[in-house]
Amino acid sequence: MAINDFDFVLFGGGGDLAMRKLIPALYMLARSKGGFPPSARIVSVGRHPFSKEEYIAMLDEQAKCHIAPECLSKEAWSAFCDRISYVSVDATDPGTYAALKEDMRSEPGISRVYYLATPPALFSVICQNLKQAGLVTPESRVVLEKPLGRDLASARQINAEVGKVFEEKQIFRIDHYLGKEAVQNLLALRFGNILFEPLWRREWISDVQITIAEELGVGNRMGYYETSGALRDMLQNHLLQLLCIVAMEPPVDSTPDAVRDEKLKVLRALRRFTPNTLVQNVVRGQYRSGHVHGEPVPAYRREPDANPQSRTETFVAVKAEIDTWRWSGVPFFLRTGKRMADSLAEIVVRFKSIPHSIFAQPISSFQPNSLVIRLQPDEGLSLSLMAKMPGDGMRLRPADLGLDFRETFKKPRMEAYERLLMDVLRNQLTLFMRSDELEAAWEWVEPILEFWDQEDNEPVFYSAGSWGPGAASALIGRDGLQWREEALPEM
Predict the structure, then answer these.
(1) Would you call 49 exposed, middle or buried from its count of C-beta atoms within 10 A (0-12, 13-18, 19+)?
(2) Cα(110)–Cα(166) distance, integer angstroms
(3) Of 238, 291, 293, 356, which residue is the catalytic one?
(4) Could you tell me the pTM of the whole model?
(5) 48: annotated binding-site residue?
(6) Using CA atoms, how far apart are residues 117 and 125, in angstroms rounded to an integer?
(7) Is 180 annotated as a binding residue?
(8) Is 66 annotated as contributing to ligand binding?
(9) Record-annotated residues binding NADP(+) (predicted)?
(10) 6-145 with 178-487: one CATH topology?
(11) Which fold has domain 6-145?
């Protein structure tokens, strides 16, 4: 699908997200097959009064290094930078938007994309000021970066206030995990093949584990992270979106609302927490000092600018249950954390054990079949089966059938932000959250936040470089299960 002519207006154009992800993604799209229309433009917006030359110099220093060297050429970079202008705007001052209006084109048929890479507190005021300045047209779109609120009330407020300026079909709530090839391949696996559909239900699946683990600590994001924590930063959006794709019913087609209707049904079917189940089914952790790759790292409370009495969680594990015919009785275990033993993101669908062994080894020695969808660092699929070991006798051990996307598909893959920005420019909403979907996710996690806000509720500690607190192992152990890395047999 061709991309129509556009002005892409990037609020927060001098920020970290713009430099690391958005500008490199736009460059890759501009140089791809088909590319951008010749007159398409990128307008970076920020408070600092840069000249165009100063801003391009900043891109040379801070954004160019995030583009693969083999994809860079002097000519392509120069042509890309020719599309860019910079406008100094105070997002909260309506009077400064006149400079933005002057810089933008007014010809009919030009799409205007407003990307708000800003704190969510500015979403409403930016949208209102754009409308007041006469910058919102029927062809306009707005892209909202997470976090979309701090709780249900603030998410509803953002939805309502942005909704006064833009129609729902113009609002793109971005979750970059949905742009990953492996996540889209999960959709292809489920709805483009017949093999797993008869097994994709409670009769055959034991449990589902979804993990997003990071070796890194908070780095220079302490100001943001201290007010967010792992639940708001990762679980309420990324992990729940992955759960929805695993658990959703087949949509009638791949149109945006058909897919998002089914995801919404999953969120509404999640069993709500009670005070008793919160204690049993939610673990809140914070890393203390430890070692990562043999190097000592400080505790969260001793990171630069940290609150020495902070109760902010850097780890969360949750047992979720979906009250539908397909999934009743199948636990979904979600976890995410910083300063973990490894950096990975994966979905593990574990099937039930065989009912009887005909071999001279007990059922307890059989590893249940499992499907592992790896999202990072290497995107791919693997199916764990039991197979006969070579040699005399009939001794079985686990073996994996693997699909490495990089090796199987030689075509270069699009990074998540490339894919999602392309969908924004093409006006494709399938991979973006709808307002009711966002609010349903907050409704489910809000009891956890309220429980944690109680004065006597403290996080449990885990050593940096581990797989999290022991309470997370106890959480899954109460169902007679183990996290994948704990369940892997020794070779």
Answers:
(1) exposed
(2) 17
(3) 238
(4) 0.92
(5) no
(6) 14
(7) yes
(8) no
(9) 47, 146
(10) no
(11) Rossmann fold (3.40.50)
Residue found under tokens 């574990």: 350
- Can you tell me the distance from the alpha carbon of 283 to that of 349, in angstroms, rounded to the nearest whole number? 21
Number of C-beta neighbours around residue 252 at 10 A: 11
Domain segments of the chain as ranges = 6-145, 178-487
pLDDT at residue 184 in the model? 83
What count of other Cβ atoms lies within 10 Å of the Cβ of residue 467? 21
- How far is 237 from 479, CA to CA, in rounded Å? 25
Please give the pLDDT value at position 491: 43
Considering only the top CATH level, what class is 178-487?
Answer: alpha beta
Say whether 66 is catalytic.
no
Is residue 280 left, alpha or beta, with left meaning phi > 0 and alpha meaning psi from -120 to 50? alpha
Distance CA 489, CA 367 (A): 8
- Residue 112 one-letter amino acid: R
pLDDT at position 221: 83
Question: For residue 154, what pLDDT is reported?
Answer: 92
pLDDT in tens, 317-336: 999 999 999 999 999 999 99
Structure tokens at 450: 């309220």
Whose structure tokens read 């799209």?
Answer: 29
CB-neighbour burial class of residue 54 (10 A; exposed 0-12, middle 13-18, buried 19+) = exposed
